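Predict the structure of Ribosome maturation factor RimM.
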Amino acid sequence: MQQYLEAGKVVTTHGVRGEMKLELWCDGVDFLKKAGRLYASAKGGKCYNITSIRPQGQMALLQLEGVNDMDAARALRGQVFYFDRSDATLPEGRWYVADLIGCEVRDADTGKVYGVVTSVDHPGAQDIYTVKSPSGKEYMFPGVDAFLKERNPPEGYILVTPIPGLLDDDFDSEREEE
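Done. Here is the predicted structure for Ribosome maturation factor RimM.
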């Protein structure tokens, strides 16, 4: 599992004192406040202490130690920042999206392999997992308890109990026979 995970990307400056608008790619402002610092690369790199962060719509206004004017902030435009997973804790049973990508999706009852997780999106009330089957076809399923039985990224798998047609074409072929 990756040690440094994406926190967000600086999209522009804000004001003249070095504040920046950060497009959030993590759980939000409170999450980053707890982490307390950001890194300049996926391997760590230069470390910046967060001196202040607050929400602004879907973005965050971020102030970093040592970034004290508009020119310093402008130099960081486009910069993707990372947090160290050891700086943040998740509740038991929760995982970072980066840990779920690549997990094998298996039927909890039969062990059938449906494919691997290629993305996890957050369009609304629940996550939507995209699974690519061995044949290359993509399926989506909601990350709700009715379907999602176990997530085990350290072992590389997710167990699901799908309804017919959710992760295969069985339902469509049954309808064609009618």
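Residues 20 and 151 are 36 Å apart (CA to CA).
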